[in-house]
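Project standup — Tuesday

K.O.: blocked on the structure for the chain from last sprint. Re-posting the sequence here as requested.
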Amino acid sequence: MRGLLYPAVALMNRLTYVKKFMLIGVLVVLPVLLSVNLLFTGINKQIEATEKERCGVAYNLAVRDLMELLQQHRGMFNAYQSGSKHFGELLDQQRKLIIDAIEQVDQVDRQLGERLETTEQWEEIQNDWNSLLGRSEKLGQQANFAIHTDLIEKILHLYMHVADVSGLKLDPGTDSYMLMSVLVEKLPVIIETTGQIRGIGTGVAVAGKLDIEDNLRLITLTGTLEGDLIDLGRYSERMASAELQSQLLTLRTSHQFRTYSFITDVRQQLLYSEPLEADPEKLYAQGTDAIKAAYDLYDAQVPMLNELLAERLESLQRQKQMVLGLAIIATVVILYLFVAFYESMTRTILTLKEASTKLAAGELTTRVQLHSQDELQEVGMFFNQMADSFSQMMQERKRYEEQIVYQAHYDPLTGLPNRALLADRLALAITESIRRDQSLAVMFLDLDRFKLINDTLGHDVGDTLLVRISERLVECVRGEDTVCRMGGDEFLFVLPNIGGVEHARETAERISEALTAPVQIDQHKLYISGSIGISMFPGDGTDSGELIKNADTAMYAAKNLGRGCYRFFDQHMNEKAGQMLQIETSLRRALEREEFTLYYQPKLDLVTGVVCGAEALVRWNHPTLGLVPPSDFIPVAEELGLIIPLGEWVLRTACKQNKAWQDAGLAPLRISVNITSAQFQREDFYRTVASALEESGLEAGWLELELTESVVMNISAKASVRLKQLKELGICLAIDDFGTGFSSLSYLKHFPIDTLKIDRSFIKDIPGAPKDTAITKTIIALGRRLGLRVVAEGVETKEQLAFLASRQCNEVQGYLLSKPLPADELASFLEGQESIAIAIGGKG
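H.V.: unblocked you, prediction finished:
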């Protein structure tokens, strides 16, 4: 909404209040004037339409006289040509009347013809009449009747055209409802139909015979006339004005009686009488009487219509005057109120402006007193309150500034110094160390697997853990040392004026020990560790940036050692970091360049002494670095999101290789493939595994998927279904690094696990280490009790092998049996496995 208002607000902000009010005044008055103009235009259009209707009524009134005379002339001429000399004597007199009527219409046409678009039609009618006069004596009876009828039809069309153009047919007035329809549509047609019957009937009566053509015409015309009389009655009864109906009732009844009488006599004396007995003069008089009654009805309604139109004109003129008066009053009132509003507003604004100017100049006693009772009065009250509070605000300003400085230099969650304050303190510590010629240590701490806590328990628990950890860290250092939170789960320590490396080592050990104690948050007992990197001034750097960077590098080296430890920086770490950067850059194209290969480490069945399986281990054959171990590039692949395509490649390649060994005649063995959490959590993981088996042709029972404890513990409901689907497919499922993850073992009960792999960290010191020995015994016993196959990895000595065999461990793998081998070397190894098994002390 603010975006839409921005242009208008920007315009108003550029104007003074005088210009603002002038602009608004114009914008207020303009719509009023436009509205008045629209009303005037509408009323003027109605007045013009009504005046045009009156013109149409006047024109058609003149046309009505001409049409009546022509109809009479047609009847007389038809009777005269049939043999009645009486009608011949009347024709000359009738033609004089028609000529006078034509002159009258011609005069009206000169006045209104252009407006009503009638001149062309009227001139054609005049020409047709003159033509009729010139040749009527030479034409036969039927031709004369047809020419008369055609001329009358043209006059009737002229009549209808005038009604259309003048708006008589479309008159919207409820007061004249159906009156127009009677005048325009019904009465002229009824009169013409009656006139045709009178002309034909009179001619038949004079001739004394009725031919077939006249018979059909009379039947058709009398039927049409009878239907039109019924419609006329319906129209008259539906007139909006009951008063009009009452005034016209007598004339309408007379017309209906005379017309029905005429129709009845025509039928009885002409159509159904044999021989004909009709009196031509009497029949003509009856028709004329019916037509006259119709014209009487017509002539009675025309004044009514003129009166209604006159009343409408008068009403419209009154409306026009009233609108003009109201517009003038409204405009005066609006201008009056607007000027008063302008005066009130500007006076108040000037008062506030003067007071603000004084307050800005330092006159804190300035107050305003406004007489208005609008929102500006509240502004004045707030101005006074502002002046009262200004001195108090000045006193509080210092406290706010101190708070802002604190927030700019301290972490809001833990209260520890942040990056900005660290930079100042480290720079000061370096300067002091140079002055005193003493050592300085920078320690970079990153909490291990902190993201897992955030993801599983939520950020609220993670924030609480950070606060507790920060309290412990402060207790591990001296008062002059600085503990800073760099962000997330990273902390930096500045230890100035220390005795040397040993002092830094002791502090790092105190920190590591403090982190090992569990942290109780609500119902959760959390265990955390941290990886620490240490750089020393001046040996590892002479400025803040270099010391922090090298401490960070050493911290990553500590993580690579297995986390939960500390490392001092050495120059080799920078080389390693550069190598890791090179690895990250090259890893993005490694799959496309087919630089990866699979090595396979065999597994020995301690019961049969036969190699029963192999674990597929990916290696990167880097073009310049050579063979890169997984520990160097797998974390980078996970971070870059490349672990998904890489893992799929490993799965498909291992399946194809196992099938190739079987096709080559080697004894079938189970191939194990490590699956990361990112792979397993994907919706399409099941389809990927099924597709790999289908493409390779390998039976599902010869594939084993290895998942770590942490992956299994975080399996969702959907992923649990996916695990069962894999099991139903026939695939074996193994828990890798068992014993190093979560302590809960409930997943062994709920998930379809086949194999437990004891982590090498428990195997390397057995049987000499009592704790590792006890843990190993427990895992083997647990697996046997649950019906699971137990595999020990990292077996390197015969003593370890003998111990595991004595505890009935199912399988072993390690360098005692074989290091990981390429595919072709493993095939050779399998061909000579009997001698190898005997060599390490297994059964043949």
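K.O.: great, moving the ticket to review. The chain has a mean pLDDT of 82. The radius of gyration is 58 Å.
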